[in-house]
Amino acid sequence: MLTDVQIRNLKPKEKLYRIADSHGLCIEITPNGSKLWRHRYRYNNKSKMIGLGTYPEVSLLDARQARDRNKQALNQGISPKQTKAGNTDEASDNPTFKDMFFKWHKHKEDEWSSDYAEDVTQRAERYLLPYIGEKRIQDITSPDMRELLLKVQEKGLLDTLQKVKGIASGVFSYSVGMGVITVNPVRDLPRDIFKKKPEAHYATITEPNEIGWLLNKLDLHRGTDQVRVALQLAPHLFLRPAELTGMLWSEVDFKEKIIRISGSRMKMKNNHLVPMSSQVSDILKELSRIDFGSEYVFPAPRNRNQCISTNALLGALRNVGINKETFTTHGFRHMASTRLNEMGFRADVIERQLAHSESNKVRAAYNQAQHLQERKEMMQEWSDYLDQLKSRGAVSSHTKSQ
Length: 402
Prior knowledge:
The protein is α+β, with helices and mostly antiparallel strands. The protein has 3 domains: 1-90, Double Stranded RNA Binding Domain (2-Layer Sandwich), CATH 3.30.160.390; 115-199, Tyrosine recombinase, N-terminal domain (DNA polymerase, domain 1, Orthogonal Bundle); 208-401, Intergrase catalytic core (hpI Integrase, Chain A), CATH 1.10.443.10. It is built from 17 helices and 9 strands. The chain has helices spanning 4-8, 60-75, 80-87, 97-108, 114-127, 129-132, 142-154, 158-177, 208-218, 225-237, 241-245, 278-288, 310-319, 331-342, 347-353, 361-366, 372-401, and strands spanning 17-20, 25-29, 35-43, 46-55, 252-253, 258-261, 272-275, 299-300, 303-307. It has a 4-stranded antiparallel β-sheet with strand order 1-2-3-4. Strands 5-6-7 form a 3-stranded antiparallel β-sheet. Strands 8-9 form a two-stranded antiparallel sheet. Helix 10 packs antiparallel against helix 12.
């Protein structure tokens, strides 16, 4: 268990890290030196985490008491997040930004996945609540927000800047709609004062011989079964990294040879079908014989209630000698898109399998099975093609070594 002396002596590192206290309570130290209390718990058989405030404003004793209140709520079948958000209903006629943040969060969370809802809370607790959380929301001005956001920009966190700006604007817009304030101070900030995030170009490989080299490189991984198999499947499924690592056994239908991914896990929030080639089905069946005792196909080695991280895949690529200039985990999607188009498959079929955005959201909700038979045939041909390239690459490497 932690002590106040230990907490005061915790120093920031290059990356965020957490130190456990007891019974799910831990303290999170961010690269900027902030110390944030977190409570991990399970609700509806899912692992959750909730923020309890910043240290030293929230003392060690306060954090433990808050954790215990959460445990009491859980014993009554109540989510601690509902309790936390519900407390803001008792705010005065002059609510703070923090009050309105939790009201807005509660209003929006049904539209979000649980992971995204937690991400929003974590960003607010790192970049917004320590600075304007206790201010009356009607007293926060555009210059206040400009100063806060420019400090994020000065750290070079351009992606975080846009996300934090979006969260703040959402809270203020909600507050305007509820009649709490009349002006959104973020809306009136000129865009020109903020730097644009550079357009991301994911490193990929599209030449057939190089794809064969890549596939053979992946076999050099000597880590856990979870990461090894995820790497094996990544080129065959070409899902987004988080969609792959978060795969659930309940989504895998061996009888129909389909992976049915819930819209809550997809970037575009639409249900998605992934036909399984014979190769993919065989790999997953082999993995299913290992009893990890988890709902996840790729559970984290130290916590079966969580999946492996996308960083685990990225780290595995680097460990087998594939550098960031050559390939990234997103590169599997670009590789498949390029080659499948060149192989003559219809663009509509490829785009549907990549789960790219559908401009008509109503249409998109019913289109998860569009072109399904063609997609089944394409996914089998793609796996067969990868096997050919891999075999050819292995022969080529053997010849060179002689």
